[in-house]
Specification:
135 residues, alpha+beta, 37% helix, 14% strand, globular
């Protein structure tokens, strides 16, 4: 979790984060948080099993072909493996797309990027948007 690795930069901006997931905490512990003590995370993890927030933020599900037939997905995973990253098993619905959103202190959306395939923004991009939102 790259946001966690740069958390001191988020704190310097006075930012808070909520990580919203739809899988059961037990599954998350075995997959996404496999080597992390969840209680040590510097941000909240909210479980939305019914995916109400996903719908409210306009996050859709990918089509099978968008994921499994896209050569860019395989290139990304190959690049991560070559860089020494360990790929974790997916959750219960690998087709559910996520997104990254920043809400400023006034409650306005300062940054919105619904996910398309496996294309999460770089943490630096999110930090830059948070810095702009902080003024």
């Amino acid at each position: 979790m790259k946001v966690r690795q740069r958390w001191e930069r988020w704190e310097a901006l006075g930012a808070a984060a909520v990580f919203v997931v739809f899988d059961a905490p037990e599954l998350l512990q075995r997959t996404m948080f496999d080597d992390i003590e969840v209680a040590s995370l510097p941000f909240a993890v909210a479980v939305d099993r019914e995916r109400v927030s996903y719908g409210a933020w306009g996050l859709r599900r990918a089509r099978h072909r968008d994921i499994w037939l896209d050569p860019n997905v395989y290139r990304t995973y190959w690049r991560l493996l070559r860089a020494g990253d360990r790929l974790l098993p997916g959750g219960s619905d690998v087709l559910q797309l996520g997104g990254d959103f920043l809400v400023d202190a006034r409650g306005s959306i300062a940054y919105a990027r619904p996910q398309e395939r496996d294309d999460r923004p770089a943490v630096g991009e999110l930090l830059a948007a948070a810095k702009r939102a902080a003024g």
